[in-house]
Specification:
about 450 residues; alpha/beta; TIM Barrel; 2 domains; 8-stranded parallel beta barrel; two-stranded antiparallel sheet; 16 helices; about 40% helix; about 15% strand; binds flavin mononucleotide; NtaA/DmoA family FMN-dependent monooxygenase; NTA_MOA; EC 1.14.-.-; oxidoreductase activity, acting on paired donors, with incorporation or reduction of molecular oxygen; monooxygenase
């Protein structure tokens, strides 16, 4: 069995993933605005030798008929948040080896300034940064806030392709890795190694010179989680680490489909690392774990489900009869969150969403049960690792690192220590910190060489 990789999914807000567990007595993330919270979590990840801390992000909020529901504020469901890139910058100083993955939207960011922000993080962290590329499923309210017109689902991915081209040009094609000489008796940078970029795309234009020099990884490690047909094509083309959510029974097919997209894009099937989101509730006995899970469910108000489903899809499930088949619903927001419930009714989905939100069902049991489930799933679905999606923080992470991880280490499927300096070497297994040659971003480097 492969050596598994692990990341911790976090979110700089009180709740995430469509549930609202902030009232649980063990939860500390209601104080997510405090740096102390983030340093504690990051150090816990680093001490446990998790590969990375993943900072999710969203723009927008849940709205029904043009109004934000009071429950969204009462439960801290969507707003407020912090900027994940700034949290990551603070955590660079609190850690030395941990990867830090920042979510950034190709719909709402500007590629030129975004490229600089990510390169800055990559420089100051010495190559420990990743970018979770999102097209923003919660687009309807977000574009209003930005004063932009709405962009339909598949077109957002066309926009993302164009965005990638600009940032590849800036990261890979502008400053050569050895452009800086810092020779006090000579010159600071070699002008022959600093190239002008030109980009005239369907959505973005950029001309001139990148604001930052070539960073340790050049391009940050690219993470992606789109699961619609268009999202998978995008992920197969650009993603180096793909996250899958949803049902374990569908994972093997999803993994095969993503690897096939990568091959169609001219990449090696195993150059993508595929990780599944994974939740667990651990107890000394199965009964204790079940009771622990029940207390988590009891800490949440059932009304949260309607508001939170609306945030992901723009659909108000309370306005449909409970027996309406989900196949009758359509959204231009996250299609995955409608398609994954095919065969169920609106009433079924409201119950499911209350318990799990966008997360898969947690494995509830002893640490041995959880380790068994992870090994079985990884083998059956050909996974490279797991993105741990906690239900109550920091309790979920403490339980995993103290109880489950030692078992996985004993079984020889989790590394004892970090290997490789940069996040890319460690996670993707590249021989150097930069993109593999078969990655589309590397072509911008090759063009540069050809032009010389
Ligand atoms: C594990 C995981 C983490 C995700 N994190 C984010 C996130 O931080 N921000 C975001 O806007 N979307 C996030 N998503 C959603 C995906 O980027 C994507 O929009 C979603 O899977 C729907 O895909 P589709 O648009 O191709 O249908 C995440 C999805 C998964 C499975």
């Amino acid at each position: 069995m492969k050596m598994l990789r692990f990341g911790l999914f976090e979110n700089a807000q009180a709740n995430d993933s469509g549930t609202a567990t902030w009232r649980h007595p063990a939860n500390e993330r209601d104080h997510f605005e405090s740096l102390d919270y983030w340093v504690k979590i990051a150090r816990m990840c680093e001490d446990a030798r998790l590969d990375f801390l993943f900072l999710a992000d969203a723009w927008g909020w849940s709205e029904v008929d043009g109004e934000r529901l009071p429950i969204s504020s009462e439960e801290g469901l969507d707003l407020p948040r912090l900027d994940p890139a700034i949290v990551a910058a603070a955590l660079v100083a609190a850690t030395t080896r941990l990867g830090l993955v920042v979510t950034g939207s190709t719909l709402l960011e500007q590629p030129y300034s975004f490229a600089r922000r990510m390169a800055t993080l990559d420089h100051i962290s010495k190559g420990r940064v990743g970018w979770n590329v999102v097209t923003t499923g919660t687009a309807e309210t977000a574009v209003e806030a930005f004063g932009m017109p709405m962009v339909a689902h598949d077109k957002r991915y066309d926009m993302a392709d164009d965005f990638m081209e600009v940032v590849y040009k800036l990261w890979e094609g502008c400053w050569e890795p050895d452009a800086l000489q810092r020779d006090k008796a000579g010159r600071y940078a070699d002008p022959a190694k600093v190239h002008r970029i030109e980009h005239e795309g369907p959505f973005f234009r950029s001309r001139g010179y990148g604001n930052t020099s070539y960073s340790p990884q050049g391009t940050p490690v690219l993470f992606q989680a789109g699961s619609s047909d268009r999202g998978r094509k995008f992920g197969g083309t650009h993603g180096e680490c793909i996250f899958l959510g949803g049902s374990p029974s569908k994972l093997p097919d999803q993994v095969r489909a993503i690897r096939a997209e990568a091959v169609a894009a001219g990449r090696a099937a195993d150059s993508l690392k595929i990780m599944s989101a994974f939740s667990c509730v651990v107890g000394a006995t199965r009964e204790e774990a079940q009771r622990k899970f029940e207390l988590i469910l009891e800490s949440q108000r059932p009304e949260v489900a309607v508001a939170s489903y609306a945030m992901f899809t723009g659909l108000d499930l309370s306005s449909y009869a409970p027996d309406t088949p989900m196949t009758e619903l359509h959204t231009e927001m996250s299609q995955t969150q409608v398609q994954r419930f095919a065969g169920l009714t609106v009433g079924d989905v409201l119950k499911d969403w209350h318990a799990y939100g966008v997360r898969g069902k947690p494995v509830v049991g002893t640490a041995e049960d959880v380790a068994d489930a992870m090994c079985e799933l990884a083998e059956r679905a050909d996974l490279d690792g797991f993105l741990l999606t906690p239900v109550v923080q920091p309790m979920s992470t403490v339980d995993f690192v103290e109880q489950v991880l030692p078992i996985l280490r004993e079984r020889g499927v989790a590394a004892q220590d970090y290997q490789g300096e940069s996040l890319r070497e460690r996670l993707v297994g590249t021989p150097s910190p930069v993109l593999r040659d078969d990655h589309p971003g590397a072509a911008y480097r090759a063009q540069l060489a050809a032009a010389r």
